[in-house]
């Protein structure tokens, strides 16, 4: 018996068969969840990272996707709230069934969500800095691209104690998971290097008046104020309190001290002087006055999105966001699939993967991909076109 197969009928049968084997149109996308605190007091880094994430997705999709699959980006704004981050992580893992999750941005959220993603078997790209999140036994599918809190704290401590020769340090951190963890860790590192934490305070990032904390730091004999918070509002208030009392003590701490949002919040531009933070070789001007070529190329591609003029945001966060998606692309291409065990093997075998923010290496027992050699100290008030000068040595 002959069947009157039309082209339409044949396509319908083939489509039904493909769906039966798991190859529906929806399955052909590579689904990436993006947990990002785009609003709230801790949003400065996330807003810049988001630009990099979107740029990488656009570039990869324009070039044909990853193994022929277009990237579908599912962004969720956690507002810096660990409870929201947990709810969104569960939604992305179990309802949306994403193949990867990037984030959350802040460590307090990361401490809450990383176990959830691990139980769900979802590979995650970690951009929170606390050490506990890079545990290959607890979280075998979590791979970190951002520098660690240990790298930040050690770089800042060495600059204060070894370069500036200051031993008496006031430590002011916020009340988030990151802040409380970093305050203790900073005090421990300081003690081991021969310094002393003469004053330690944990401050709500929304506190409007921090004059008391700066006064107490000064009264304690602090030679440096060390700040550990990503809240640009809190950091600006600390710099204003220091400046308004005419106390020119160095302020050293979280890289967000160099965020351009702070410049707009200062009572006087000179309050940004004598302020230093850990930065990155990828967004630091060399002796010849230029940033590395890979950074420059990304800036040139993205400049039209920022109006064609000077880049007015901290570009290292952009490069890191960009690299998170490129790392996922690399993992899927290397694995030949999105199967979690294959992704884990691919990233564990990655050596010196060239990104813009850094070159990454992971291993079976190593989930921190960012190299110590890429850490530098920057001067906050040298911001120009998204990047910075080295701090005085």
Summarize the structure.
Helix content is 41%, strand content 16%. It is of the alpha/beta class and 393 residues long.
What is the topology?
Blueprint: H1 7-20, E1 30-36, H2 44-62, E2 71-77, H3 82-95, E3 100-102, H4 107-120, E4 124-126, E5 142-144, H5 149-163, E6 168-174, H6 177-192, E7 196-203, H7 211-219, E8 224-228, H8 232-244, E9 251-253, H9 260-265, E10 275-280, H10 293-302, H11 315-335, H12 340-348, E11 353-354, E12 359-360, E13 375-379
Parallel strand pairs: 1-2, 1-3, 3-4, 4-5, 6-7, 6-8, 8-9, 9-10
Antiparallel strand pairs: 10-13, 11-12
Helix pairs in contact: 2-11, 3-4, 5-6, 7-8, 11-12
Task: Please explain how this structure is put together.
41% of the residues lie in helices and 16% in strands. It is of the alpha/beta class and 393 residues long. A six-stranded mixed β-sheet has the order 7-6-8-9-10-13, with helices on both faces. A five-stranded parallel β-sheet has the order 2-1-3-4-5, sandwiched between helices. Strand 11 and strand 12 form a beta hairpin.
Keywords, please?
six-stranded mixed β-sheet; alpha/beta; 393 residues; globular; Rossmann fold; 41% helix
Counting H and I runs of at least 4 residues, what is the number of helices? 12
DSSP strand count: 13
Span of the ends, CA to CA: 88 Å
CATH architecture of the largest domain: 3-Layer(aba) Sandwich
The CATH superfamily of the largest domain appears as: Response regulator
Radius of gyration: 23 Å
Low-confidence stretches: 1-26
SS content category:
alpha/beta
List the strand order in the largest sheet. 7-6-8-9-10-13
Largest sheet: 6 strands, mixed
Query: How many individual domains?
Result: 2
The helicity comes to: 40-55%
CATH topology of the largest domain: Rossmann fold
Assess the beta-strand content as a share of residues: 15-25%
| Mean pLDDT rating | 92
What is the overall shape?
Answer: globular
């Amino acid at each position: 018996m002959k069947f009157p197969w039309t082209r339409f009928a044949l396509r319908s049968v083939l489509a039904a068969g493909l769906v039966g084997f798991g190859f529906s149109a929806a399955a052909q996308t590579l689904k990436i969840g993006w947990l990002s605190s785009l609003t709230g007091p801790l949003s400065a880094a996330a807003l810049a990272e988001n630009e990099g994430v979107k740029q990488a997705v656009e570039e990869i999709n324009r070039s044909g996707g990853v193994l022929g699959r277009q990237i579908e980006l599912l962004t969720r704004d956690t507002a810096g709230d660990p409870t929201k981050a947990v709810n969104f992580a569960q939604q992305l893992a179990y309802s949306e069934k994403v193949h990867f999750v990037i984030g959350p941005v802040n460590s307090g959220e990361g401490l809450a969500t990383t176990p959830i993603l691990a139980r769900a078997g979802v590979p995650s790209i970690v951009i929170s800095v606390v050490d506990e999140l890079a545990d290959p036994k607890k979280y075998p599918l979590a791979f970190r691209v951002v520098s660690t809190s240990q790298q930040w704290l050690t770089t800042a401590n060495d600059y204060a104690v070894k370069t500036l020769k200051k031993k008496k340090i006031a430590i002011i951190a916020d009340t988030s998971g990151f802040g409380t963890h970093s305050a203790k860790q900073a005090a421990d590192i300081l003690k081991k290097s021969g310094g002393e934490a003469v004053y330690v305070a944990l401050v709500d990032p929304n506190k409007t008046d921090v004059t008391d904390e700066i006064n107490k730091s000064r009264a304690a004999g602090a030679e440096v104020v060390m700040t550990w918070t990503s809240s640009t509002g809190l950091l600006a208030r600390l710099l204003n309190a220091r400046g308004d009392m005419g106390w020119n003590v160095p302020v050293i701490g979280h890289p967000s001290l160099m965020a351009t949002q702070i410049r707009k919040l200062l009572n006087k531009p000179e309050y940004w002087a004598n302020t230093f933070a850990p930065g990155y070789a990828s967004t630091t001007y060399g002796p010849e006055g230029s940033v590395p070529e890979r950074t420059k190329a990304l800036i040139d591609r993205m400049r039209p999105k920022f109006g064609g003029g000077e880049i007015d945001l901290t570009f290292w966060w952009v490069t890191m966001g960009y690299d998170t998606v490129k790392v996922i692309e690399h993992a899927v291409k290397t694995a030949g699939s999105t199967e979690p065990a294959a992704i884990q093997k691919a990233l564990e075998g990655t050596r010196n993967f060239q990104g813009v923010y850094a070159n990454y290496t992971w291993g079976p027992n190593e989930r921190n991909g960012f190299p110590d050699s890429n850490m530098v100290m920057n001067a906050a008030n040298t911001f120009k076109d998204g990047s910075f000068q080295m701090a005085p040595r």
